[in-house]
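[agent] plan:
  1. take the single chain provided in the ticket
  2. run structure prediction with default settings
  3. attach structure tokens to the ticket
  4. add a short note for the reviewer (M.T.)
[agent] executing step 1
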Amino acid sequence: MVSINEADSAVINPRAEDIRSVSLTSAASEADFVDEASIGSEKGPIVNENIPVSQGQVHAARRRRTWFQTTFSHVLELFERPDPRNKLKNPIRLLKLTPRQAFTFSVACLGWMVDSLDFFCVTMTTTELAEAFGKEPSDITSAITVTLMLRPIGALLFGIIADRYGRRIPLIVNLSLFTVIELASGFAQNLETFIGLRAIYGILMGGEWGLGNSLAMEVLPVESRGIFSGILQMSYSVGNLVAAMLYYAVVPNLNWRALYWISIIPAAITIVMSLFLKESEAWKQSRHQQRNSAQTYYQVVIDMLKQHWIRCIYAVIFMAAMNFLSHGSQDLYPTFLKKQHGFSPAQATVGTVVGNLGAIVGGIFFGYISEYLGRRRTIVICAIIGACFVPLWILPNSFGVLLAGAFFIQVFVQGAWGVIPAYLAEISPDNFRATFPGLSYQLGNLISASASQIEATMGEKNPLPELRDGETVPNYGRVQGILIGIIFCCVLVLAVFGREEKGKRFEVKSKPVDDDDD
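[agent] step 2 finished; step 3 output follows
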């Protein structure tokens, strides 16, 4: 056995009265080889005499403990009780905004709803497009794939422009181009032209979310950010509902082309409203600081990546999991109801509507609750409870019970999504609040674009044991259940290890920057 010299003993064995005055954690951080069970004893800590200890080992142990506490302290915070001083506020009071805040938020919501409306116009008219162009429905879905693949390009392009030159003008340009593409889609005479138009639309759709989200989150009151985050994200579900209603009102009475022409009306209204927007004080202050800095914009980007590269990677992975959760629980569900259970197209549409109603309820409710529980804790709760509803979502044979499952699964899937606009805005580096959320969202969307294709392929390769009318029946339900169960677990783990910056202020309390600095 190697003895411990007096200097080492002085470090490892401080006076007993000093030891009793500190916590177990701080005492353990002084030495890695202290018997923690004896820390509160009268004799002070006991050194394990069977292990040789040196001054370097003590400092190394201290550094390891400091690194662990610094790196993972936010994980432990997730399991602490919410701050009792943080009371759950009256939602009616949280919904009160100034005229400017309400107007800006309304434009952001309309922009995202309009994008969703046009996206789901394609999914609703797949059969009609295939007949018009003399193609198979699977050929038409390539337009959807192209749209999803090009969204990150739009997020990067419009995000950089918005962070440098403001959100208002890029948003107007985005919506104006979007309206032209939407109108032109109704005049397409062949599939190649239609796919080309949808490719441009994909770029525009990818840019709109980052623009609208940054503009809305920067003007909203900090304490109201959660509930309005849920409302903003659920504009996507509203767009889905509007597309379904327009489809059944327009296409049977006119044709599929009229659906695209009529859907530009809300887009045109949004463009007119966006002309009256003003830039946020948060962006003005950020831009003012950039102009007064000796660094160029590209140097700022490089510095941000050096400092926040882990956060950037985390955001993309997290958004990939969230998009897998959304697309995996929505895109193939109507097909699951029709193909596996034999329900009519009208019943499948009812299932879609009920699921979207659950999404709207969940997004707004959990967005509101996140102001009390925190963003990450809210997502964790949605992941745990949502996973419990997976069997109700896929196993019953009764249409009514399946509708209940569709409603509740979307309550928790979109409940987690309702937190995302606020969460991404809060963890964004200050000078990149348009680029960071939009690009991470759309890169995650790109990664998850194959969700419905994976479910369809695996379901067809693993059919139900019984035949229907002499044909095999794909087992979509089992594949959906396994995939969504796994994704819920991934979302839970990623949320636990994420950062919590709820309540982060986007602007400093100072004299407003003049509009000349725009």
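[agent] step 4 note for reviewer: The longest helix spans residues 297-330.
[agent] ticket updated
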